[in-house]
Design goal:
heterodimer; A: 327 residues; mainly alpha; 13 helices; globular; B: 96 residues; alpha+beta; Ubiquitin-like (UB roll); three-stranded antiparallel sheet; 18% helix; binds fe (ii) ion
Chain lengths: 327, 96
């Protein structure tokens, strides 16, 4: 590395160590930029693909109250995708390129959304566990070193809190209902528990990015720390529902002051990451289809805007008076 | 998909309530200003976070360069006499 580059990197690391935020136009190492683009775009894709399993139940929500809540949650997730693509764009990549990568299968998104939503109880489990796990990660990311990412996270975290509550409320209602309803809730927990734990990513020993990301303060906690935090917070909530967490090894450990838990099936994790989960193809197809079928709308809106602009310019040649801009 | 002209990027500024200034909220894509305002309403004020929205196409914003921040701002660094504490007044003179 040439000395000038080395000095810049040392300066950059010193700013990070002093807990300064990095803003879009600041100098940053290429690898920092690349890591952020990868992480933020994966995060954005997850918000967008994450709408699909829930969209599956909008028309079958059991009441109007549940339906408006689910719709509002899904709309929030679309917004989260937008904030995050926006944050990624400040790093000099455009959204269209990121979408192309997603649609080509070259980009990743959270594997949790490659599992099917089979029952109404899954809307409860997704809000409680999937959003719950996402919140653990996102609360940490409000303190990430890249300014635009941190600010997007603050907005997102404010909006997320209702997502988890509405999910938990769905399960609470089922658990206080008939035996069949309680069974439906238990079945849902059985299917979502382990995939939710996998959302935090590979364990620290096997995670290729963690160490560098921690040094750059992109991440402030490791995958295993967040996973443990999630388990500790969630198990008492399962107890309150009267549901059984599907892990025979789960046990409170007084010495560690944490729950001990069983081994995660990492073979399953990597299999889904590689594209072989139950819904990988279906999810991607749905995204590509939506994008392609919306193309004419995007083009028509652009053509209309250009035409109007053109007319405006023609009129400006014979101006009738100046118009004040800011109101 | 033949015409690859994408919607431009806009910066969004929101006044959260009268009496406060507009503050940068984030960005979005829109075909024109009108759509930018509507999209801004949908993504940045879904929970009544605003009473007024400004949008401006990102390419029209001129920003100072962080590389020159030091020289740009250093004229302000050695002018302590611009601050009230620079002036010594006796304690008997209160609230000034
Ligand atoms: Fe979200
Ligand atoms: Fe959410």
């Amino acid at each position: 590395m040439d000395p000038k580059q080395k000095a810049l990197e040392a300066q950059f690391q010193a700013r990070i160590d002093a807990d300064e935020k990095i803003e879009p136009k600041d100098w940053m190492p290429d690898a920092y930029r690349k890591t952020l683009i990868r992480q933020i775009s994966q995060h954005a894709h997850s918000e967008v693909v994450g709408m699909l399993p829930e969209g599956n139940w909008v028309t079958r929500a059991p009441s109007l109250r549940r339906k408006v809540a689910l719709l509002a949650k899904i709309q929030d997730e679309a917004g989260h995708g937008l904030y995050l693509y926006g944050a990624a764009e400040t790093l000099g990549i455009d959204r269209e390129t990121l979408l192309e990568e997603l649609h080509a299968g070259a980009a990743k998104y959270s594997s949790i959304f490659n599992y099917p939503s089979l029952s109404w109880a899954d809307m409860g489990a997704i809000g409680w566990l999937v959003d719950g796990a996402a919140i653990m990660n996102q609360v940490m990311l409000t303190r990430t070193s890249y300014g635009p990412y941190a600010r997007a996270m603050v907005r997102i975290c404010k909006e997320e809190s209702f997502h988890q509550r509405q999910g938990y409320e769905i399960l609470l209602t089922l658990c206080r209902g008939t035996e069949a309803q309680k069974q439906m809730a238990q079945d849902s927990l059985n299917r979502w528990w382990w995939p939710a734990l996998m959302m935090f990513g590979p364990s620290d020993g096997a995670s290729t990015h963690t160490e560098q990301s921690m040094r750059w303060r992109i991440k402030r906690k490791t995958n295993d720390e967040l996973r443990q935090q999630f388990i500790d917070a969630t198990v008492p909530q399962a107890d309150y529902l009267g549901l059984t967490v599907p892990d025979p090894a789960l046990k409170w450990n007084d010495e560690r002051d944490h729950y001990d838990f069983g081994e995660i099936d990492w073979a399953e994790f990597w299999n889904v990451v590689k594209g072989n989960g139950p819904c990988n193809r279906e999810r991607l197809q749905a995204r590509v289809k939506a994008h392609e079928q919306g193309a004419w709308v995007r083009e028509a809106a652009m053509a209309y805007a250009e035409k109007r602009q053109q007319r405006q310019e023609e009129r400006n040649i014979n101006p009738r008076g100046l118009k004040n801009l800011a109101g | 998909m033949t015409d690859k002209k994408n919607w431009p990027l806009w910066e969004v500024f929101i006044r959260s309530k009268n009496g406060l200034s507009h503050k940068h909220a984030g960005s979005l894509h829109a075909a024109d200003a009108e759509m930018a305002i509507e999209n801004a309403r949908d993504v940045y004020t879904r929970r009544s976070e605003g009473v007024s929205i400004w949008v401006v196409e990102s390419r029209y914003i001129t920003a100072s360069s962080p590389n020159q921040a030091a020289s740009l701002f250093d004229p302000a660094d050695d002018k302590v006499y611009r601050h009230p504490t620079f002036y010594n007044l006796p304690d008997e003179v209160k609230h000034m």
